[in-house]
Write a structure and sequence with these properties.
Layout (H helix, E strand, L loop, with lengths): L10 H7 L5 E6 L5 H16 L3 E6 L4 H13 L4 E4 L12 H5 L4 E4 L9 E5 L1 H14 L5 E5 L5 H16 L9 E3 L4 H14 L5 E4 L2 H13 L9 E6 L12 E4 L2 H16 L9 E4 L2 E3 L5
Parallel strand pairs: 1-2, 1-3, 3-4, 4-5, 5-11, 6-7, 6-8, 8-9, 9-10
Antiparallel strand pairs: 10-12
């Protein structure tokens, strides 16, 4: 009778009575990056297979937006939350309501050091070290590090790896050795234009993502600067663009699929009432992919 009259059960109300919504939330900086798109795709696949829907929310690299969206997800009664922090985020107070209600929070990729949440990251220090050491082994001494905001743990750890290997080989690191930006394609082009204008082109450049590295290569090609003989370029992530640019980009491979799968499986276990895994902080290794740019 109910079906014949067009009755549709209120799934949300039913779930509330059961104290579970079978919905998880994910709060990320931007879904437009290839890295995050891959991560969200894998996370949604895992959670859907486990019987959970996924609400996707973006901070657009804004702390204020991240705080507002976290509250919206909390009020939506999600059973668990996955988070990758914005570049501006320096505290996690806005996630306290989740923890106070015993709603599991798993952070991945961009996390805050010392957080009590479960974290899934890559060894960014290792990545910065490997990228820079590769250039040094090729005889490059004047090397510039193109970074996102250094208050963000991902970029700070990569920079620390850069500094460590430079010091190991007795090479100078000055204020001019690091350039902070938003790591867009345009940022990569601009940094090369600035170097050319000042006639201070470095021998090598480590870019903290492949998009900005592609921007560097575009501008170098436009100005007939030979790569890698005059300047070598190394990127991060091993995105699709790394194999498309000319010359093909040497880069650090980040295992985004494995990271996303691990984060999703942990959240799934926690939402099902299982204990917090040990260790709480999981870090995946990265590796260098050598192509023609360095």
């Amino acid at each position: 009778l109910a079906v014949s009259m067009g009755y549709q059960p209120n799934v949300f109300a039913v779930n509330i009575r059961k104290k579970k919504t079978h919905t998880a939330g994910i709060l990320i900086p931007r879904i437009t990056s290839e890295f995050m798109a891959k991560a969200v795709t894998e996370i949604q696949r895992i959670l859907n297979a486990g019987g959970y829907n996924l609400i996707i929310s973006q901070s657009d690299e804004s702390y204020e937006t991240e705080v507002k969206n976290a509250l919206t997800l909390f009020n939506s009664r999600v059973d668990g939350l996955l988070v990758s922090l914005s570049n501006e985020t320096t505290d996690c107070y806005h996630f306290q309501p989740f923890l106070q209600k015993a709603i599991p929070v798993v952070m991945f990729d961009r996390v805050l050091p010392g957080t009590n949440a479960v974290t899934v990251t890559v060894d960014n220090f290792q990545g910065g070290f490997l990228a820079t050491e590769h250039l040094i082994k090729q005889g490059r001494k004047k090397i510039v590090f193109l970074s996102g905001p250094l208050q963000c743990d991902v970029y700070r750890r990569r920079y620390e790896g850069f500094v460590e290997v430079m010091k190991k080989h007795g090479l100078a690191v000055s204020a001019g050795s690091v350039v902070e930006c938003q790591l867009s394609h345009e940022d990569g082009q601009k940094i090369i234009r600035d170097f050319l204008k000042k006639k201070s082109l470095p021998e090598g450049i480590v870019c903290c993502n492949d998009l900005s590295a592609a921007g560097c290569i575009t501008e170098l090609n436009k100005n007939n600067v030979k790569i890698p003989s005059e300047i070598a370029v190394v990127g991060f992530n091993n995105d699709t663009v790394a194999g498309i640019v000319n010359p093909a980009l040497t880069t650090i491979h980040i295992p985004v699929d494995r990271m996303a799968r691990q984060a999703a499986l942990i959240l799934l276990q926690l939402m099902e009432g299982n204990k917090i895994p040990s260790p709480r902080h999981i870090s995946f290794p990265c590796h260098l992919v050598i192509r023609n740019s360095a």
